[in-house]
Amino acid sequence: MILSDGQIEELLKEELLQIEHFSEDxxxxxGYDLTIDEIxxxxxxxxxxxxxxxxxxxxFAVSTREYVKFPPEVAGELWIRxxxxxxxxxxxxxxxxxxxxGNLTLSAYNTxxxxxxxxxxxxxxxxxxxxxxxxxxxxxxxxxxxQKSKGINL
Length: 154
Prior knowledge:
Number of helices: 3
Structural class: mainly beta
Oligomer: single chain
Radius of gyration: 15 Å
Number of strands: 11
Order of helices and strands: HEEEEEEHEEEEEH
Distance between the termini: 31 Å
Helix content: 10-25%
CATH topology: Deoxyuridine 5'-Triphosphate Nucleotidohydrolase, Chain A
Shape: globular
Number of domains: 1
């Protein structure tokens, strides 16, 4: 089951789901838009302010401003915002496991012309899924490779 905006707000109010730097403006009818905190082009040093120009045919990584903490009964799914897809940005995202905590690093590729991306702009939507039951083992017990990560983590 995908959670609605009201269900997301309830989880936040009960502090079961936590989103540091939460903005009401980023809440969507069925998810939450994540904002860019920093960008790294081809694995270079992260750029943390202003605008970043991404050349054509270039890989880049984005770190989210939001630091999230998922409860045991909720997983997340990431989708690139269509604003960026329409400009030729392709992204490879996955699931956010139940129990995950940290900033998210998102991988993307600019397939088209040079684009400029402002730090602080929304980049991806996080959709929340309610699990049928609590996971037997949470993210930190399964692999936990990126648990409590901050910034761009390659």
